[in-house]
Give the backbone structure.
Amino acid sequence: MTTDRLLEITELRLGYDTGRGFARVLDGVSLSIGRGRIMGLVGESGCGKTTLARATLGILSPNARVESGSIRFDGNDLLGMDPVRFQREIKGRRITFIPQDPYGAFNPLFRVGDQIMELMKWKSPRREPGEWGLGALMTPYPRARRKADREQALRRLEEVQIPDPERAFAKLPGEFSGGQRQRLMIAMALMTEPDLIIADEPTTALDVTIQAQILKLIRLLATTHGVSVLLTTHDLGTAYEICDDITVMYAGQEVEMAPVDTFFVAPQHPYTVRLLDSLPRPGREIREIAGEIPSLLDPPTGCRFNPRCPAATPECSAARPPVAGMRHKVRCFHPVAHGAEVAE
Amino acid sequence: MTGPEPLLEVRGLRRHFPVRNAFGRVTGAIKALDDVTFKVRPGETFGIVGESGCGKTTLGKTLAGIHVPDAGGIAFEGQDITHLRGAARGAVTQRLQYIHQDPGNALDPRWKIGRSLDEPLAVHTTLTRTEREARVREILSAVGLPPGHLDLYPHEISGGQQRRVGLARILTLQPRLVILDEPTSGLDVSVQAMVLKLLRDLQVRFELTYVFISHDLSVVRIMCDRVGVMYLGRFVEIAPTEELFAAPRHPYTCSLLSAIPEIGGRRVTETFSLEGEPPNAALLPSGCRFQQRCPLAAAICAEREPELDLVTDRHRAACHFAAGKESRL
């Protein structure tokens, strides 16, 4: 049975062993992304959004330890999967990555074209299943596939509006501006014809006018290629711009998940409401969220927002609230009411 | 000294950085600042916005005396400080302070907070030890920290508190003008709200004047009285904040404003139309610097660089077409 859910993360608990103890960075996080949809994973620094993205990509650091939960991608259990198969079939191929920093993502000493073709040599969708193992390391890049791959790569560069792709292939990364490098990264993420692209704060390092251009491009390409995107961001404005669904995380727990239309109209979790309130808006006093983000080495029990939450009661620190709601999900014992909109 | 007189007056400021080729020959110049002129009145917050590479940080550092301008002058409290050096400059520094992005980072990790806060007073003033201690305690409570923090090391307090200490350190000298260089860049929105609120409270309490450098227009909008928009080393528009946001006159300002995501409103990705990126600062076009990206560009724009002229009595814009039209948004 196929579902319309491409990625399904269930009750994922994982953390890092540190010198000062175990830091549980993800505390039972559930999240699912539909096919062809853009999911915005929103949260402040240290909320675990990057860890979640890295767990999905299978690139957690060695001191990370998964305690429980599962990540299912198109019917495959990524955590239990044979690592070799994961590496060959999924990582960098069906799930690809757009980094935050387009400056550090290229090796400055090699031509952009060479770096793209190196990727295509190993991860091209035209690669035969037989081209693996030690033998593959010794054999050269097959001519016919190389030609087809190169043509596809040039087409992708055109799609991301890099002027004159042939010449761009021969340039060094330093000859591109930041916005163009991010376009190149997007093109590379699309080259293997993936089902899911994980974009980790793709516009944070860019200026506001360039940011608008890049977001527009991601939206357009996701739609034309029918690819799902998991976009992590700390900026609710960015999430509003291009996402279909939004998940808010706080200190390693997801607190609210909703389609973009109801999310901004009727946010229900006290944290979400305060986060939206803290955005600068003209003609209004600045509102901050009292308190600070807890240390993950010694986090509050239950809902981790409870020490800062004005609506908190003893039950909030006793246990984590279950998921409530069907379309607009919230994990809170005392969701903020919005008149009739709260009734599902 | 006070009253209608501007606190800071900048005339025709210029700072070019030479571009050298592989043999060390100067082959051109990056015009980081080119004929920058503006005034800051006492008590106001003057915002400087622009994208990376527009020269806003160079401007801030030149005002603070970190860079020496190639031409032009800076007057502070009526005194020409452009070429002051040594002790004379030190005296000005007391009243004209520069705060970089994360002031908490400037704390010495091996010094207790109390010593870090005491140092500027020991260097710049002749106060006695007890007077200095009283001043330090007063400032520490102004930034919202308990006196017990004086005996802690920077790593024992949180990042947000380090930031507060960094601000306190600058305020111990009771400056009149503070140059804030991207004070909230890279911060989460809730922390940003905390910092902005603190900056506002401190401004009222210590009667500070701010030069607020930022790339974030929504922050500038709520913090500043007047805003100057920079593009490739020049101001293209200077206006009172409300007027700038309601009726921008320069096409670049219009595109900047239309690029701000506004939750609940129109989506920028559906409406935003500015193409391209700023040209290389070392290879500027003749005439108007914005012409290659400008939707209104005409022949005159390539011939002549527009002056920063008055459009209304408090609104200046450097565009050949600024006067004729109302808002172009």
The interface with chain A takes residues 51-52, 158, 160, 188-194, 196-197, 200, 215-219, 221-222, 245, 255-256, 259-264, 267-269, 272, 274-275, 277 of chain B (CB under 8 Å). The domain at 8-87+175-275 of chain B is CATH 3.40.50.300 (Rossmann fold). The radius of gyration of chain B is 21 Å.
